[in-house]
Amino acid sequence: MAGASIETTLELWVSSLRDVKARIGPLFGQKRVAASAGQFLDGLLGNEPRKTGWMRAEAAGDPGPWRQQAILGRGRWDADALRDIVRDYALKTLADEDAVLVIDETGFLKQGKTSCGVARQYTGSAGKITNCQIGVFASYVSRRGHAFVDRALYRPKEWTDDPERLKAAHVPDEMGFVTKPQIARRMIACAVAAKMPFSFVAADSVYGTGEIETMLRRAGKGYVLGVAANHVFHSWGKKQLVGGSAAKIAQNLPKSAWRRLSAGEGTKGPRLHDWAYLELADLNAGEYNSALTGEWTRGLLIRRNIADGDWAFFSSRFARA
Prior knowledge:
Number of domains: 3
Number of strands: 12
Number of helices: 10
Shape: globular
Mean pLDDT: 91
Low-confidence stretches: none
Order of helices and strands: HHHHHEEEEHHHEHEEEHEEEE
Helix content: 25-40%
Radius of gyration: 23 Å
């Protein structure tokens, strides 16, 4: 919107917001419920520092929070259908064959014990084990921008092993314990089934390798997946023989193997790290899916923190040009 007037920009925002409300309206059956959902969306986009029910109700001109609370509690509507609407809306602008599907999680700090899935667990948002909920998200990232396209609430076993607690939180009986790697695989499968255009999946070591790697190879997708320092790698068919744990391999690399590159712009400028990449093997795409052709290269990608020397390790798979 460079060069556009404030009036034009605001009109575009209002028009776009109306379009979004029109898309999601049919999910809620009745017009009055759809209107409350639209007001709920207005509240989330508002500038109130805390998004409590009473504050949202006040902004909407309601006498109390009950109408909007009903959408999240008593209301019956298909949350996955809403996810699909959001995904398709985002892809209209962001779709790109070279896009990356990023799987990651974040924690929502809580003080009580009744919010579904809340427990003492590690969250990167606090940098420690604390009382929180954990949400796993899929983000679609392309050269045109990025947007969330999937989400799931992680429920620890202390929740799924307690039927009374699940009933009190209105969790459906069929929703049992699901690990974070299983959640990630479901999200990837959903993205592939929806024919979302993307070339790679990126995820940290929480989500593992193994089954995700096999799944992506069958789908003809590349990946950069975090692994632990003790993850073992071996090369074959390459001039440079590589073998051992990721940490051991990194320790033995010569200085010439490292390149200082930016991982993108941060609040204080480029986020510089030292990087090393080792090719391990060339794989035929048809090995996992006979409908696919071409050659892929499996590799080990290593990132070294400039400040403290800490390493991060990634199993990778790229299409060979």
